[in-house]
Amino acid sequence: MAIFEYAPAPESRDVVDLRSSYGLFVNGEFVEGSGKPFKTVNPATEETLAEVATATSDDVDRAVQAARKAFGVWSALPGGERAKYLFRIARIIQERARELAVLESLDNGKPIRESRDFDLPQAAAHFFYYAGWADKLEYAGFGTKPLGVAGQVIPWNFPLLMLAWKIAPALACGNTVVLKPAETTPLTALLFADICRQAELPPGVVNIVTGAGETGAAVVAHTDVDKVAFTGSTEVGRIIARTVAGTGKKLTLELGGKAANIVFEDAAIDQAVEGIVNGIFFNQGHVCCAGSRLLVQESIQDELLAALKRRVATLRVGDPLDKNTDVGAVNSAEQLARIRRLSELGESEGAERWSPACELPDRGFWFPPTLFTGVAQSHTIAREEVFGPVLSVLTFRTPAEAVEKANNTPYGLSAGVWTEKGSRILWTAERLRAGVVWANTFNKFDPASPFGGYKESGFGREGGLHGLEAYLDV
Amino acid sequence: MSRLSVRKTYKLYIGGAFPRSESGRSYPVTSAKGDFLANASLASRKDARDAVVAARKAFAGWSGATPYNRGQILYRVAEMLEGRRAQFADELGGGKRAALERVDAAIDRLVWYAGWSDKIAALHGAANPVAGPYFNLSTPEPTGVVAIVAPADPLLGLVSVVAPVIVTGNTCVVVASEPAPLPSITLAEVLATSDLPGGVVNILTGRQAELAPWLSAHMDVNGLDLTGVADPDLALSCEQAAAENLKRVARPVEEDWSADPGIARMTRFLETKTVWHPIGV
Question: Residues in domain Aldehyde dehydrogenase (chain A) (predicted)?
């Protein structure tokens, strides 16, 4: 029942000046990597965007040495001076926001509307926020002593934003960093290296080493790294926790999730539908805190599902650079295979699968918005993180049952509650074992708001006053 | 004719009860001079698992109790301990005066932590000024079940690691000082008569090297405090095992128990929950 047809509204790629190959950023300079370079592709078209260097453990060692050397200078700077560097970086991110947003969409596959309106403003805001802390640490209650060299490994779902979450607080507290971006999305981190140069950040304060899991493992295991911060899968998080065991390294982990989004029968249905859609289809569902388990009260199941399907049918899937696009490309062939495998398991285990009629491009990695109904708690799609645009729908009768089901997961990153009754919101929120609870909203983020999980979703918080603790010797 | 004294059988403390080890094992405990004192229970893997079950069962009630209530109960523990000063001083042995000082310090530490129950959230929580029309509040919550390997210091050390964990609403399983386990079981008698719900604190006596690995690997334990582990190899294997379900781990540390404890032992086993709600009419 399309009333208006959309004309394509593509964002121009001209703003991005892609080089054919990129090196590592070590000690303020781009240098060659010793490993075999890898290609990063546009997941929407499978075209190769650039060739990127692979850092071996020797390269990582050089980066750590550069960071160690820079630590003396950087940690000795007055906080106010460190602050000004971070404010500069925040400003340059704003100035180059469009370029970064287009590059992010090219490399990641996310809709330009999201990279432009979410990733970029949030990344700049994060630097702006922590810049302000750099000369106020003595008021925060965690002391003022930095840890040293931070080794940081980040995922591909919000490449630049995760970089900001890692680098901004680390630098504000006086640490220096060696950061490894994900191998499928290294480009905005490398552009960030150029921003560090424009900001005249002292060499070695930020080092960017690219590569796959082996490079990340070398960063984590390096004996001269004092702090490890990782965002990614729980599986890799466990390996990192084992690696760091018995060392003096401080560790924070932001891992997977299987968030319950609980809709009570008195919820405002239209708002809840928007929240459910935002909760699971934002960023193609490549969100650790995605509301991937919809828990709907049995009495409104039919009404809610009908409204939800109507809304999902209007989502526009396609070209990430089209400003009308709601759902972009899946980030990689590997991730697409995982989403397909788990969806097939969903069907074979007995849940009912539904997707709206939607045409997917011939090339690239695509998966339509998908709902599963009739899902039992024992189903794989109710337990495992899909990390894709796949929603599992379960039902409940009583508030106690909703809480029981919501908490029935080894994860504990986030949760949603939809009800018009304030006391029920607070009652539910109090019982949910999750680090972030969104009530009558979902997937909201802010540099001032701590983010992080309970249980196997990891430990430590990023954002807010709490985010400082991870980068200070408390 | 002097009277023959009635000795106490030292058992475990699990779920508010005093069972012997299910293994039927015990080990002799001697004084510093080498004199026989008692046969303490030698807890087994099964005892450790029973203790975790008891701690989990107690978690909902204890973490759901009001902070005021938890504070009063911790204060009650201090009251009960005060009433048994002489008994504990005897049990600690060594110089009478020094022993009494240690007992007094343990009592005072409990009083100090009792007062924190309804204040830590004010320090460790935050109203976050987000850039949008949202109410946004972060509050600390207990991590869950915490396994603690207590330090050698049998009373002050024990109280100093247990009180900060439970005052915030966690429940715990404690492996007592291996060479000097007796005061821990006498402390259990104090806990049992202080309105502390059964299962909030569970105390095992026995071998660190036997019990700590099971607790470190237990999938229903959320936090691990290795303060009392002296063997670095044991600490390493425990921390590695803890990675399996991403327990929050406190690494072994030499601590001066008479020093100001600070708040780090409380915040280590706290999670931060942030709740968002839109503002509108």
Answer: 30-473
